[in-house]
Design goal:
The complex is a heterotrimer of chains A (177), B (358) and C (176). Chain A is α+β, with helices and mostly antiparallel strands. Chain A contains six helices and five strands; from the N terminus they run ααβαββαββαα. Chain A has a domain at 63-176: Alpha-Beta Plaits. Chain C has 176 residues and is mainly alpha-helical. Chain C has helices at residues 3-24, 28-48, 52-77, 89-114, 133-141, 145-166, 170-173. Classes of the chains: A alpha+beta (177), B mainly alpha (358), C mainly alpha (176). Chain B binds chain C through residues 1-4, 78-79, 82, 122-124, 127-128, 130-131, 134-135, 137-138, 141-142, 145, 153, 156-157, 160-161, 163-164, 167, 184, and chain C through 3-4, 27, 29-30, 33, 36, 47-48, 50, 52-53, 56-57, 59-60, 63-65, 68-69, 71-72, 75-76, 124-125, 127, 132-133.
């Protein structure tokens, strides 16, 4: 007697094979029917480079360091993102803003170096949650393959969002004032 | 020496025929590799090769090119000569069987003579096929032994014992067929299946000998070393089987000969059991169109039947799991051979009591 | 010299050299392969004599089945040159004597079969039809039906013997 605690275990049928089972042909026919059925099933494959599957709206991909509307970096190098990061993927170095650099950085303190190791990062998005200045965001792209480990350590230049034309024009206006 | 009394034009005719047949079987074998991958993909809800050309149609060319470019490795073997001989024999034996197959009805020429679409109409065609098939195992055995590899050797032994076991059932099932047709000539066996319906019954041998067909096709799977009987190249136990040590085009020869064999045995199956180049309504075509059209359609019909069989072979391969070795031997010796013997006796009895003209 | 004669001599030369290869080659695998080649050239001789059935049966039975088993066994035995046993002088002497006696019998048999043929040419051009399957079957089941059936009984007894030998002895294995 076998124990059947969960009442889910199924008793294995070990009856001696009937004649039909022994000649094996009906089983083959059954198998062929299954494979034949699969011929007419719609293929779930997506032809990747030609057709791309959209990410979900909540997808968390590569990080982006944001700028404000005048094109200045928002990050003040407070270190909360690095602190919150469970994978310890973020390192940064803070520096004080010089008066002549006020069109580059929003706050008095800024990140001179900012690195994210994409091999360590688990894309949990906690840095995004932690950031008090809305400086870091997770975008909808992912890190492309690379030949070296070095290539996966993203520097500030890799992470900073490029300036848009709108930002440029606003920046010009603000510097004129 | 009737053999040597042949004219030059006949020789030319035969050479062209041989070239066409070899080219066609190589081409079909090439696209069988493509079809195999495509069929497998379709059955597993995948897409299969689709990058090289439209629908991946250039995939066999790419594969062939790859095999040619690869480094040729000959291991420190017991005999280099035998190592090269193995794949050569496999390829040779695969190509040889096509000589006795009638590929189509005779094409009438303007001067009243005919062009025969058969390389050699020998009166023991069935036995010739049988002989070449029984020699095919040498390619595997010699290659396996010359590889100097335990797994290869095991695979060679498996292939040999499997081939010998299933040859018996195959031969006995064919005896029943030959008893019925009363001839060993392929041409005559096919001609007896003329049309589709005559004298109130089907003419094709399948409808007269279904059991022999079943035994024959199971044995064909075993002789071809194809799933579910591909014990000789059973990856989970024997790495790559007899071609573990082979690389480059020699490996290609082994793989390719399997596909040629598959095509040829499909043609043999359709010739012996499914009427070969015969099709329903061929008399109507002969009467109303032209005898030439009969031949052309006949060749197409034979190829069509063969392709159906090839697809069936692939269908089975991607459906049924591999047999265990003892199951294979039990099936061969304890089921197929007694069944074939019974079929032979039953056929003999029926012929003796119902079709005895004397 | 006619073309069939040329072919005959070439084939004979090939057959004999393959046969010599069987006994001369050191490796048993090579011996077996030479033997297969010998069977092939013998089959070619059959074809020359318009006995296609015999030729193909020779290939199927000897080259296709028996030699495969030979190869099978030799591959399993893993023979090579240094496992060759050292034969002593007495064994070699006995082998020479028995081999020579066998040769004598063969020569005598060949000689007796030639008596009455002296002065006659062996005609290769005029084809005989006895080797064709129809005529052979006719002969086997009429003139030679008794030896044929005797041979089949012999095979049957060999088969039964093999099955009996191959069967496991259940009495010995039964636990006491």
């Amino acid at each position: 007697m076998t124990y059947n605690i969960s009442k889910k275990a199924k008793e294995v049928d070990r009856h001696p094979m009937t004649f039909l089972e022994r000649i094996y042909l009906p089983a083959i026919a059954k198998g062929l029917k299954i494979t034949l059925g699969h011929m007419f099933i719609k293929r779930p494959t997506i032809n990747y480079p030609e057709v791309k599957r959209p990410f979900s709206s909540t997808f968390r991909g590569l990080h982006v360091l944001n700028r404000d509307e005048e094109g200045r970096e928002r990050c003040t190098a407070c270190g909360l993102c690095a602190l919150s990061c469970p994978a310890e993927a973020i390192t940064m170095e803070a520096a004080e803003r010089l008066p002549s650099e006020s069109h580059l950085y929003r706050e008095e303190k800024y990140a001179a170096n900012y690195e994210i190791n994409m091999l360590r990062c688990i894309f949990c998005g906690l840095c995004e949650e932690a950031c008090p200045k809305d400086a870091i965001y997770l975008s909808q792209t992912f890190a492309p393959a690379n030949y070296e480990r070095k290539g996966f350590i993203y520097k500030k230049d890799d992470l900073l969002i490029p300036m848009t034309a709108e930002m440029e024009s606003k920046k010009e206006k603000s510097t004129q004032h | 020496m009737i053999l040597l009394a042949i004219s030059l034009s006949l020789i030319l005719e035969k050479v062209i025929l041989i070239a066409v047949i070899l080219g066609a079987s190589l081409g079909i074998a090439m696209y069988s590799t493509w079809a195999e991958r495509k069929v497998a993909a379709i059955m597993q809800d995948r897409r299969g090769p689709m990058r090289a050309g439209p629908f991946g149609l250039f995939q066999p060319l790419a594969d062939g090119l790859k095999l040619f470019m690869k480094e040729e490795i000959i291991p420190a073997v017991s005999s280099k000569f035998l190592f090269v001989l193995g794949p050569s024999i496999a390829m040779l034996m695969a190509c040889m069987t096509s000589a006795v197959i009638p590929w189509g009805p005779d094409i009438p020429k303007a001067d009243g003579s005919v062009i025969s679409l058969q390389v050699a109409d020998i009166n023991i065609g069935v036995l010739f096929i049988f002989g070449v098939v029984s020699l095919g195992v040498y390619g595997v055995m010699i290659g396996a032994w010359a590889s100097n590899n335990k797994f290869s050797l095991m695979s060679g032994l498996r292939a040999a014992s499997q081939a010998i076991s299933y040859e018996l059932a195959m031969g006995i099932s064919l005896i029943a067929l030959v008893m019925m047709t009363g001839s060993l000539s392929m041409r005559e066996i096919v001609d007896q299946q003329h049309g589709f319906w005559a004298n109130g019954y089907f003419t094709w041998n399948f409808f007269k000998q279904p059991l022999a067909f079943l035994i024959f096709i199971v044995c064909a799977f075993a002789e071809l070393n194809r799933a579910p009987f591909d014990l000789a190249e059973c990856e989970s136990e024997l790495i790559g089987g007899y071609h573990t040590e082979y690389s480059s085009m020699k490996l290609g020869f082994y793989l390719f000969s399997e596909y040629i064999n598959m095509f040829i045995s499909s043609v043999i199956l359709s010739s012996l059991f499914f009427g070969g180049y015969n099709y329903p309504g061929m008399d109507i075509v002969a009467a109303h169109v032209s005898p030439l059209m009969v031949s052309l359609i006949g060749v197409m019909v034979l190829l069509g039947k063969a392709i159906c069989f090839i697809i069936f072979f692939m269908f089975i391969r991607w459906t049924i799991p591999r047999f265990r070795y003892d199951q294979l031997m039990n099936l061969g010796w304890k089921s197929l051979i007694p069944l074939a013997l019974f079929n032979m006796l039953a056929t003999g009895g029926v012929i003796l009591y119902f079709f005895n003209d004397k | 010299m006619e073309i069939h004669q040329v072919i005959f001599w070439i084939l004979s030369l090939l057959t004999l050299s393959f046969a010599v290869g069987v006994i001369m080659s050191r490796s048993p695998i090579n011996s077996v392969l030479f033997l297969i080649l010998t069977f092939f050239s013998i089959s070619a001789h059959y074809v020359m004599m318009n006995a296609q059935f015999l030729a193909i049966v020779n290939i199927i039975v000897y080259a296709g089945a028996i030699m495969v088993l030979f190869l099978f066994v030799i591959m399993l035995m893993n023979l090579n040159s240094d496992t060759e046993p050292q034969k002593n002088f007495l064994v070699q002497f006995a082998a020479v004597i028995s081999g020579g006696a066998l040769l004598l019998i063969f020569v005598a048999a060949l000689k007796s079969s030639f008596t009455g043929l002296e002065g006659k040419d062996i005609n290769l051009i005029e084809s005989t039809d006895i080797g064709l399957i129809k005529n052979l079957g006719q002969k086997l089941f009429t003139d030679y039906v008794f030896p044929f059936e005797i041979a089949s009984v012999l095979f049957l007894s060999a088969m039964i013997g093999a099955v009996v030998l191959g069967k496991k002895d259940k009495v010995l294995q039964a636990p006491k």
